[in-house]
Design goal:
The protein has 219 residues and is an all-beta fold. It has no helices and 19 strands. The chain has 2 domains: 124 residues, Sandwich (Jelly Rolls); 77 residues, Jelly Rolls (Sandwich). The radius of gyration is 17 Å and the shape is globular.
Length: 219
């Protein structure tokens, strides 16, 4: 059976103008039974109010993958990359031996919502940056940005009653961004996750128009 994690059960961090929901143990929140899934060590849904954000801070030895849900995110990092990231963009920052980056809401009147995911990285050199624009077609498992880890990230966009087939792999994680999906007899709503181990191939069917991120993990 898949492990189901509901949106309402995630850890929550509230700061000045920032609201974060954590799928795994993170920062001050710790659960010994929920520290990672395969190479994935963090999935954080961030909502940052207008004019707020995170100042420069340090990471090392992780892949940082960001998916913009709504609004505009201003990103700057020590690799020299910077700019505004909009919905449909998947960004990857391989921290390597160490990198500083900042994330600010690029708007002064609208919030920004994004999902930031971290994985244990196979990249042990200087930090590296990549970004791709993704235009998911309905009913297709669409690849996004590549990572230095035994993992692939896909996005699925489904109309109501449409389905998508997910191939077999060692582990698979489904994170619903919007709408609702069914996995077998289980209904997954926005913010819910399904974590599957040695499940084999499976199908996701949309109960209503939905978007989901799907990690296919090789270990």
């Amino acid at each position: 059976m898949p492990e189901i994690r509901r949106a309402a059960d995630r850890f929550r961090t509230e700061a000045d103008g920032v609201d974060t929901w954590h799928s795994f143990s993170y920062g001050a929140h710790y659960d010994a039974d929920n520290v990672g899934f395969g190479p994935i060590v963090a999935i954080n849904t961030e909502r940052i109010e207008a004019g707020r954000g995170y100042d420069l801070h340090h990471h090392a030895d992780v892949e940082i993958v960001t998916w913009i849900v709504e609004g505009a995110l201003q990103h700057e990092d020590g690799t020299g990359h910077g700019g505004v990231i909009l919905p449909g963009a998947a960004q990857r920052l391989s921290a390597g031996t160490g990198v500083q980056h900042s994330e600010q809401n690029a708007s002064f009147d609208q919030p920004v919502v994004f999902i930031q995911m971290m994985l244990a990285s196979d990249h042990d050199a200087e930090p590296e940056y990549a970004q791709v624009e993704v235009d998911p077609q309905c009913g297709v498992l669409t690849p996004t940005v590549k990572v230095h880890a035994p993992a692939e990230l896909f996005v699925a966009r489904l109309d109501a009653e449409e389905s998508v087939h997910v191939p077999a792999t060692s582990r698979s994680l489904v994170h619903v961004i919007s709408g609702s999906l069914t996995l077998g007899d289980t209904v997954l709503a926005a913010g819910d996750e399904a974590r599957l181990t040695d499940r084999g191939e499976y199908d996701l069917r949309a109960s209503s128009a939905a978007i989901a991120l799907i990690w296919q993990l090789q270990r």
